[in-house]
Design a protein that fits this description.
315 residues, alpha+beta, 8 helices, 11 strands
């Protein structure tokens, strides 16, 4: 509503328009008082008063835009919390329905020149806050056995020899980031670990977790945000579409692969699952890996996402 459109209204229409404005929605005592005065007025309206109406409507519109923006941010945070809950429950249900075997074939978060488990963390597409808590670490034979004992025996690895046209999936900005940014292919950050035939940079086959390979470790010494001690070994996996958690023929499989929306363009935007790999035979897990936590693509726990929803921490 602008000045020209207001001036085109009849006296009765203009008075009806002014009377329809909710005074409580107007920010500012001065504008609110002018509005109440104009509502009581019986005669015509001056140009100054029309300008006041425009200012009032603009103020209300600005307030509504701010409120809608905050609602959108809160809705995203609430959706992420719901996704984290769904993933946690889905993984536990899968475990119970499949003879105490967890889903496997997660995204490894690793990049390798040959698509195997001797690579490095794929920091070039990981959110900086997430990457700060991750480091590549070699597993012991006992830790490999602890993962294999609960069904986690393979992962998807980015293969740096994969090409898309003239571009190669090398672990740097000129490589994988250039492929993601290119309009000549359909490669996206969330599908980066899929094989080239599925518009990704992943190896043709998944890498088996055997011998003494390397995986990505969540570093509790950096920031103990996950409910675990600083000495416990938590290995991180991306919840990608190739995981058996989303294979329809499996009992308890989920149908939708969630996407985390608070990452920047070009960043991996899947959720991350942490498994506690313990080899203590006296613990209740009896030397088997256990689900520890779900974190988002920025490395935040569920409690931290709830903090964003409650306005106690920034998005």
């Amino acid at each position: 509503m602008n000045l020209v459109s207001l001036m085109g209204l009849s006296k009765a229409e203009l008075k009806t328009k002014i009377e329809s404005i909710d005074a409580s929605a107007v920010k500012g005592r001065g504008l609110r008082r002018k509005l109440e005065t104009m509502k009581r007025k019986q005669g015509g309206f001056t140009l100054l008063e029309l300008l006041v109406v425009v200012a009032i409507l603009a103020a209300i519109a600005g307030t509504a835009t701010t409120l809608l923006h905050d609602t959108d941010r809160k809705a995203n945070a609430a959706a992420h919390v719901a996704m984290m809950d769904e993933l946690s429950k889905g993984i536990q249900t899968f475990y119970q329905l499949n003879a105490q075997q967890y889903p496997t074939n997660w995204d490894s978060l690793l990049s390798s020149p040959t698509g195997n488990l001797t690579g490095t963390a794929l920091s070039v597409i990981l959110n900086a806050d997430l990457a700060a808590n991750l480091a590549t670490a070699a597993l012991t034979a006992d830790e490999v056995a602890a993962l294999n004992a609960v069904g986690i025996n393979s992962v998807r690895v980015l293969d740096e020899s994969v090409t898309h046209g003239a571009l190669t999936c090398t672990n740097n900005a000129a490589g994988v980031q250039a492929i993601i940014a290119s309009k000549a292919n359909d490669v996206t950050p969330q599908n980066i670990f899929r094989p080239a035939t599925a518009n990704g940079c992943g190896a043709v086959s998944s890498a088996a977790i055997t011998g003494t390979p390397s995986l990505v470790l969540w570093d509790q010494t950096q920031n103990v945000r996950v409910n675990a001690t600083a000495t416990e070994r938590l290995f991180a996996f991306g919840v990608g579409p190739d995981s058996t958690l989303f294979k329809p023929t499996n009992y308890g499989a989920l149908t939708n692969v969630p996407i985390y929306r608070h990452t920047a363009a070009g960043e991996y935007n899947r959720f991350i699952v942490l498994f506690n790999v313990t080899t203590d035979s006296t613990s209740p897990t009896n030397g088997k890996a256990t689900l520890q936590a779900i974190i988002d693509g920025a490395g935040d726990t569920k409690d931290e996402e709830l903090g964003e929803f409650d306005n106690v921490r920034p998005t």
